[in-house]
Backbone:
């Protein structure tokens, strides 16, 4: 196992509507257990607000769990470096005042990899098929697809073992989406990368995933091999998701 | 079926710091009563510009020209006519409903204001009508919902409020610019269903702009596909989506991951062209797998196919 999450729980406190009302407890992620093997793609689906993004942030150590723990396999030495996140909106992923070169080298400097900066950036950009010239540019000069590729390159430069993709193609056009998905599958095969792929688009999930977890109100309600879950759903939530999907 | 809006050879130029930029060229289509026309294409292909031109909402100093523009039997003499039709004649709803509602007014007040402005209703009549409209779009009970502010409602509910505002104008044409983008799949389906139902009941002619091909396939009666400012294919929705004829439409539809797809997805080589440096001839020819010699020389005309599909491609010249 590359990573095992044991009973991960995240509780947020939501202030009341009016100041004298007590704060409510919102359990965004409830006792989630999941594991991911090396080189595997785990798809996570669910309607908006079911806790997918919270779970992604927990797995990437962006937020700390209220209870539960994450155990790492021997492949992950430094979780901050070996697990990387790609977020949904490529427009918010970069500091508009920094050039892409500055944005892309930052994680390398943080993890003391500055000496390998040039080699790693060149390799990462080649992997996502971006021209090294873009390093001198600022994010506003790039299209959405290029920015998402740049975000992918930034993550890859750290040579992660696990890549958490939170709706990486939801904001992109169809043929740009196809390009990014191809890129991810290719990298997975070549680098033996494990992926956690979060999406509400069942066709995308079906295409990329080996295994699928279906989430609803912070709980994983169904888990299994991608084809089994999507062709013979057992839980009503999964059935509703499949029936509610736009294309029959 | 009655033709409500007819557009012939609409061209739009937008003012930029370094001069005018032609963003939509030779756009022609018709909208019919009770029918949904979906306009699909990638970001930056001129879909939204076309929609804004039809409602007179383009930035100042934009240049709009056309051969013919007829709304409900009334021909327009110049582009300013669109400003006159906006609201009562042509209503629109947009992406990100929350951003289009005034955060300082509760949604009931917003609907009431539209009713008094467009239909001249008295306060009491406007209140009752506003409640009826909110119920109509599924915000029940309206007595509770009318007091909510946009930030207290979800994105899907706010989109319903925008639909109620459009209803309040009692328009003939509804222009929906990516109304379901940013909603999740369940809500998307609900909102789309609501608009389709109202279009049938009210006889709206709907121009639905989207880059979501799956959604378009489900709701459209007819479809147009845009690429680099031009319409490249037009026809009945089932024909365009099931048997596309233009190489661009074919390539775009092939990019979708499907039930059986594994491994590599086909994708279109190259990038969407920049409007400042459009390729000569057919704008799609550098990325087209089946280009002919003539393709980089002349811009193809629209060729009509036996089944009524209209395609802007030399491959179908003799079909």
Residues:
């Amino acid at each position: 196992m590359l990573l095992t999450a044991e009973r991960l729980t995240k509780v947020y406190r939501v202030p009341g509507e009016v100041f004298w009302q007590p704060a409510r407890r919102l359990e965004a992620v409830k006792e989630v257990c999941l594991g991911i093997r090396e080189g595997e793609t785990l798809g996570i689906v669910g309607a908006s607000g079911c806790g997918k993004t919270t779970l992604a942030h927990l797995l990437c150590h962006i937020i700390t769990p209220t209870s539960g723990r994450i155990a790492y396999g021997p492949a992950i030495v430094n979780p901050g470096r070996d697990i990387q996140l790609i977020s949904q909106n490529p427009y918010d992923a970069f500091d508009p005042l920094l050039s892409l070169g500055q944005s892309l080298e930052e994680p390398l400097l943080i993890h003391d990899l500055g000496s390998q900066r040039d080699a790693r950036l060149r390799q990462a950009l080649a992997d996502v098929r971006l021209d090294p010239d873009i390093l001198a540019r600022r994010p506003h000069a790039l299209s959405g697809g290029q920015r998402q590729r740049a975000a992918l390159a930034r993550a890859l430069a750290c040579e992660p073992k696990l890549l958490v993709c939170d709706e990486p193609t939801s904001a992109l056009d169809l043929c740009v989406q196809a390009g990014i998905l191809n890129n991810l599958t290719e990298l997975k095969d070549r680098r033996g990368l494990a992926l956690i792929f979060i999406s509400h688009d069942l066709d995308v999930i079906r295409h990329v995933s080996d295994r699928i977890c279906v989430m609803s109100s912070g709980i994983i309600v169904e888990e299994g091999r991608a084809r089994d879950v999507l062709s013979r759903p057992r839980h009503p939530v999964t059935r509703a998701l499949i029936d509610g999907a736009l294309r029959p | 079926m009655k033709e409500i809006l007819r557009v012939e050879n609409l061209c739009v130029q937008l003012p930029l710091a370094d001069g005018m930029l032609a963003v939509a060229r030779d756009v022609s289509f018709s909208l019919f009563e009770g029918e949904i026309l979906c306009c699909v294409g990638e970001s930056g292909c001129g879909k939204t510009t076309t929609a804004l031109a039809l409602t007179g909402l383009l930035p100042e100093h934009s240049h709009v020209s056309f051969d013919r523009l007829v709304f409900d039997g009334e021909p327009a003499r110049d582009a300013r006519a669109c400003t006159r039709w906006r609201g009562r004649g042509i209503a629109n709803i947009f992406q990100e409903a929350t951003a289009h509602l005034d955060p300082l007014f509760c949604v009931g007040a917003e609907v009431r204001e539209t009713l008094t402005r467009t239909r001249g209703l008295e306060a009491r009549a406007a209140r009752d009508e506003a409640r009826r409209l909110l119920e109509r779009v599924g915000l029940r009970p309206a007595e509770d919902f009318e007091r909510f502010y946009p930030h207290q409602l979800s994105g899907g509910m706010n989109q319903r409020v925008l639909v109620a505002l459009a209803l309040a104008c009692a328009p003939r044409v509804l222009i929906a610019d990516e109304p379901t983008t940013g909603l999740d799949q369940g809500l998307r389906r609900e909102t789309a269903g609501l608009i389709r139902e109202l279009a049938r009941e009210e006889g709206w002619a709907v121009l639905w702009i989207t880059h979501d091909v799956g959604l378009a396939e489900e709701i459209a009666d007819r479809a147009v596909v845009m690429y680099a400012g031009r319409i490249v294919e037009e026809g009945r929705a089932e024909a365009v989506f099931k048997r596309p004829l233009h190489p661009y439409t074919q390539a775009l539809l092939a990019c979708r991951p499907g039930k059986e797809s594994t491994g590599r997805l086909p994708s279109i080589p190259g990038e969407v062209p920049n409007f400042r440096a459009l390729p000569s001839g057919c704008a799609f020819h550098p990325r087209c797998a089946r280009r002919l010699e003539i393709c980089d020389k002349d811009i193809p005309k629209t060729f009509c196919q036996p089944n009524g599909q209209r395609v802007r491609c030399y491959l179908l010249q003799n079909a």
Notes: The two ends of chain B are 28 Å apart (CA to CA). Chain B has a mean pLDDT of 90. The longest helix of chain B spans residues 185-202. Chain B touches chain A at residues 42-43, 183-189, 211-215, 217-218, 251-252, 255-259, 261-268, 271-272 (CB under 8 Å).
